[in-house]
Design a protein that fits this description.
alpha/beta, 29 helices
Length: 713
């Protein structure tokens, strides 16, 4: 195996999305991942289109853990492993002798990662770990578009700012209806995968120093919490200058506009000066009078008063964008430096030749369906490059091979080290030169894991650091303001670099070169430096301004979440893992590079992007490599109620309910308690009609109790 995790053996006991995705990232970077499947295979293979993607590069062994002899074989595999990842229902691992207390005695160097639905301490810890239900229970469906006055305003019981402001039609993202919204993206599982991977990586780094493994835990609930970090805050002083901003208020236009050819683009942040300035004639007219957004005196800022400006200009911008086809707008935006992209399908991203050439989209020869394309490597490491090791294995493909390996004698590494770490990244110094969210969020994760992080601020960005969004990414750091354009300031930075282990930033790389803080310059000062550059887009699009929103457009996230295949409108989810997903990828790469350096003495250059993170968010999609046609899969309807009658939001007599029927027996049970004659034989459309009417006859609590008593999730 090549890659930074070469020599690491991972036992993957997980099903669903979060665990398989986390272990896929480990496999992509050199780990030998053994997927342990029950007789007949992981049921996720039959229910999730992405299972074929998330199992790539792994070896498969078919074992019945309820059989004592086969469980002993599994334990023998675990004895030889470095990492175990599991997501059993609570209590199952203990009953099987696969719990942490048992396994750490057998293999003291083992890093064990457990992914649960809700953790182990809440009253509802035993509820099913189904993404739709976790989203419903935690309120995530309401956060897709957000609350008037923002979630922070609701949490702090604040009066709604500009409550009497008249909002023109079309300002609100998503469908023209009230109520919660069901997105295509599985935000709870995505968040859990993003949390598990740096946790495992950090535990492996700690093991270098202590000689011992440890237990890492995360949950889908924590995945929800990290997805809402920008909006779920309860400050002591929400009235502080600059703290509240309009961005998480649904009344503020998110910059989605339909063009003359029926395609949608997103311009974030909406720029009235640009849209109205270039659209005065029969064709788009870009000339030197069009101001770049960074120099635009009328540029939309974060202050709540900007809602008035957006409401005023939205109808005019809507009319302007409707005059010309999308490509004309994209060309003009690229010329001026306006962040804008086409809202397209995941399949369009997977057929994008530039992304294929860059390796962010890869092709594998699947043993069951032939050559397919799906998301490729999502972060780059120059000295220890990753590689998609191959397609998903067939069920049990490597059973004989792996059992034969148990006959090979092995010697466990010593665990006699005496060093104790207070945190897994103790002793690491990080310089954060990042802007906005993606860069600073990655270093915040490193700080949470024990690194000392020095935030190098400019002398003019206090307005941004006052906002609740900046609070998402900057806790636990030290701060110094330096004017890097002044030679004296640059000299101070160079002194810090001499002491640092890591430098991270997400400014345009050409800007780093101009400032003299590019990798080539800093490695002259610190030869073993780990340098991570996070960008909006990779390589061919690196010259374009990128952000969370435009990355989600290009990867197909907004198309999918908005149900555009069914006539819906694009939506930028307020719980998106674009910026923060990029931050997670950077943190993962940095931690793994730290471990590599501590073994070899070698630093390296790392790269991540928002677009790569967004492609990971749509990694349930894949296409036939020859035809470019996508795999058939459930899709959210245009009004964002759900993917069909079985998995859907239904309005009750007083509130809303999320149904997530998993199998035919539960569907038959629903027929019995709903009183709908022949429900199981109805078409999907008729079933939705009947169930929608039926659920409105009783309260949400009454329906929940009835469904729960019949074991219907």
């Amino acid at each position: 195996m090549t890659g930074v995790l070469g020599g690491i053996r991972v036992i993957d006991l997980t099903t669903g999305i979060a665990g398989p995705m986390a272990t896929m990232l480990l496999a992509d970077n050199g780990a030998d991942v053994v997927k342990v499947e029950p007789p007949g295979g992981d049921p996720t293979r039959l229910t999730e289109s992405g299972a074929r993607v998330w199992a790539r590069g792994k070896r498969s062994i078919e074992l019945d853990v309820d059989d004592a002899a086969q469980r002993d074989q599994l334990l023998a595999l675990i004895d030889r492993a470095d990492v175990l990842v599991e997501n059993f229902d609570l209590g199952v691992s203990e009953s099987l002798g696969l719990d942490w207390e048992t396994l750490k005695e057998r293999n003291p160097r083992l890093v064990m990662c457990s992914i649960t639905p809700y953790g182990r301490h809440v009253d509802f810890k035993d509820r099913p770990g189904i993404d739709a239900l976790v989203a419903a229970r935690t309120g995530l469906h309401w956060e897709q578009r957000g609350w008037v006055g923002t979630a922070i305003g609701r949490l702090c019981e604040l009066p709604v700012e500009l409550d009497d402001l008249e909002i023109p039609h079309g300002c609100f993202d998503g469908p023209d209806r009230e109520g919660p919204l069901f997105p295509q993206s599985r935000w709870p599982s995505l968040g859990a995968a993003f949390l598990a991977t740096p946790g495992i990586s950090a535990a492996l780094r700690a093991r270098l120093h202590t000689g011992r493994g440890q237990w890492v835990e995360t949950s889908l609930l924590q995945g929800v919490l990290v997805s809402t970090a920008g909006g779920w805050q309860r400050p002591e002083h929400p009235e502080a200058d600059g703290y509240m901003c309009w961005i998480f208020d649904p009344r503020g236009s998110k910059g989605h506009f339909e063009c003359a050819d029926g395609n949608w683009i997103q311009n974030w942040v909406p720029n009235p000066s640009f849209a109205l300035g270039v659209s005065q004639g029969d064709s788009i007219n870009v000339d030197d009078r069009i101001t770049k957004p960074t120099n635009d005196p009328s540029r939309i800022g974060p202050d709540y008063s900007e809602l008035v400006v957006l409401a005023h200009y939205h109808p005019q911008m809507k009319e302007a964008y409707a005059k010309y086809p999308a490509q004309d707008w994209l060309n003009a935006a690229a010329h001026v430096g306006i962040p804008m992209q086409l809202t397209r399908r995941p399949e369009d991203a997977l057929n994008d030749q530039a992304l294929i050439d860059e390796g962010i989209v890869c092709t594998v020869n699947d043993p069951e369906v032939g050559p397919i394309r799906h998301v490729g490597l999502v972060y780059g490491m120059t000295k220890t490059p990753g590689k998609v090791q191959g397609p998903a294995p067939t069920v049990g493909q490597h059973t004989d091979e792996l059992l034969a390996e148990l006959n090979i004698p092995f010697t466990r590494a010593q665990t006699g080290m005496s060093k104790v770490l207070e945190s897994p990244l103790e002793g690491i110094l990080v310089l954060d030169l990042g802007l906005a969210i993606a860069g600073p969020f990655s270093t915040q994760l490193l700080s949470d894991l024990g690194a000392t992080v020095i935030k190098v601020n400019t002398v003019y960005d206090m307005f941004w650091h006052s906002t609740h969004i900046a609070f998402t990414a900057n806790r636990g750091k030290q701060s110094i303001s330096i004017n890097l354009k002044d030679p004296r300031g640059l000299a101070v930075l160079h002194e810090l670099v001499k002491r640092a282990d890591v430098v991270q930033h997400n400014m345009r790389y050409e800007a780093a070169v101009r400032l003299g803080i590019d990798y080539e310059s800093l490695v002259e000062i610190k030869p073993d430096l780990i340098y991570c550059h996070s960008s909006g887009f990779d390589k061919s699009r690196a010259h374009l301004p990128g952000n969370d929103q435009t990355g989600a457009c290009l990867a197909g996230v907004e198309y999918e979440d908005g149900g555009m295949a069914d006539g819906g409108k694009p939506i930028w989810s307020l719980t998106s893992f674009g910026d923060t997903g990029n931050g997670f990828l950077a943190a993962i790469a940095i931690i793994q590079a730290i471990t590599h350096r501590e073994v070899t003495g070698e630093g390296q250059f790392l790269s991540t992007s928002i677009l790569a993170a967004c492609l990971l968010n749509t990694s349930y999609a894949w296409v036939d490599a020859a035809s470019g046609e996508g795999v058939d899969r459930p899709k959210v309807d245009g009004l964002m109620f759900g993917t069909g009658p079985r998995t859907r939001l239904y309005e009750t007599a007083d509130h809303w309910l999320c149904l997530a029927v998993q199998n035919d027996s539960q569907w038959a049970a629903l027929e019995a308690i709903s009183g709908i004659t022949r429900l199981t034989s109805l078409t999907d459309a008729d079933a939705i009609t009947e169930l929608s009417a039926t659920f409105r006859t009783r309260t949400a609590v009454e329906w929940f109790d009835a469904l729960n008593s019949a074991a219907i999730p």
